Amino acid sequence: MSFTSERPPERLNLARHCLSGKPSEKTALIVAGAKTKRWTYGALEDAVLRMGEGFRSQGVERGERLFIRMGNSLDYALVFLAANAIGAVPIPASSMLTAIEIGKLLQHSGARFMAWDGELELPALEGFIIFNPDKLARLKLGPPGAYAETASDDPAYLIYTSGTSGRPKGVLHAQRAIWGRRPMYQGWYGIGPDDVMLHTGAFNWTYTLGTGLFDPFANGATSVVHIGERDQHVWERLVKDHGATIVASVPGIYRQLLRNGFKPGDTLRHGLTAGEALALPLRDGWNDSTRLEIYEALGMSEISTYISSSPSVPVRRGSPGKAQAGRSIRILDDGQIGVHRADPGLLLRYWGEEPMTGDWFATGDMADIDADGYVWYKGRVDDLMNAGGFRVSPLEVEGVLLQHPGVADAGVREWRVSETASIIAAFVVPQPQANLNEDGLLAFVRDRLAAYKAPKQIWFVTALPRTANGKLIRKALERP
After folding, report:
1. Among 54, 71, 90, 433, which residue's CB has the most CB atoms within a 10 Å radius?
2. Burial of 288 (0-12, 13-18, 19+ CB in 10 A)
3. How far is CA 173 from CA 57, 341, 343, 353, in A?
4. Please, what's the b/e burial string for 428-437 (b: 16 or more CB within 10 A of its CB; e: otherwise)?
5. What is the pLDDT of residues 255-304, one digit of tens each?
6. Contact (CB, 8 A) for 319 and 440
7. What is the C-alpha end-to-end distance of the chain, expressed in Å?
């Protein structure tokens, strides 16, 4: 069975779908920071169409790739939407990438245009047209243009994501990707036009662009994104100052919120989390502390989220939820989750590769599906560890470690001890004043997991390597 929700229209443009036809004086976006600025839908659309026309006048044609090398600022989102509006293909990239990495992505994508913030390091460039801050400011003062009459299957944006081979892969999405996000609106968010969505990520993160901007805009809601310095109470303050009804983040940030005594205030209805599995102690701690629910989602760059719980899909502890309404998924013969190729949210193709030909896209996510449709996630194919011939998910081991009251944070990875042998190693951040020792913690784990799943080595560390948005980088775990 393929995608069963309403099919996207023949003509579709992501930027127009998000911005056009909304009440022009309604607040679309609150950019919070040292100075808070509010953008109405009318003002935001006007800025996007002016910048888009400026790009077009400078030679950015339909199908051209425009690379975004910028930090956390509103201009990042404006550039993305403006390029998309005229039928060009924006390439959003993390500001944490080095100049060497950027050079490789530019070469692979064939981009000739770049929006640059004037600060981040650039590789040696030849034959590029660069839109620096001065040029971008001038573009916003020019005349507004019009949306391109793009087709649903026309390219919309290109995201580079970590490949299993260690080389980034370019995920090319179509304009229909915005239509493919519709199952999330009630299948994860429970969102409506009166909602205020606070996303704790930065503008230059695709999770923020999608969940924090595009989806609230598509629903006529209001988005809040923070720029600048962040103190330990910034998110609590923003919820109260702007009446946030939904907060979207990652498990690492929710962990910080609980540690800092987060109080949800009167407006917040629930939280959303994605990016990595939500540990049960963290879920339980959030529920107990705030008396609110936290809805988890499973997704990837190739489709965004497609499995979730929501106000209309009750949480089942330990599961990220069910396939969102209209989506068709199955467990493939090798244990991966497959998504039917008819899903409009699925990528067009990987850049430089031929489009997929089979009926099912293999996600690389290992899982089981129970009789009620709930998905039980086992981790990524490339995250699974080999323990004496058995496959073990680091998520399962980390979940048990985090149940120990003396453990503040934990990460697990396969650790090679020789050319022919590897073990499961754990990296543990103790709670302050906790009297932890390796033997006691190993005994705790062995009481709760089969022997082959238990770590053979535990190292105590002061912190785990995480991205700026709180996601654990398992491959960067190193012994002290």
Report:
1. 90
2. exposed
3. 25, 13, 12, 13
4. bbbeeeeebe
5. 899 989 999 999 999 999 998 888 888 899 999 999 999 999 999 999 99
6. no
7. 50
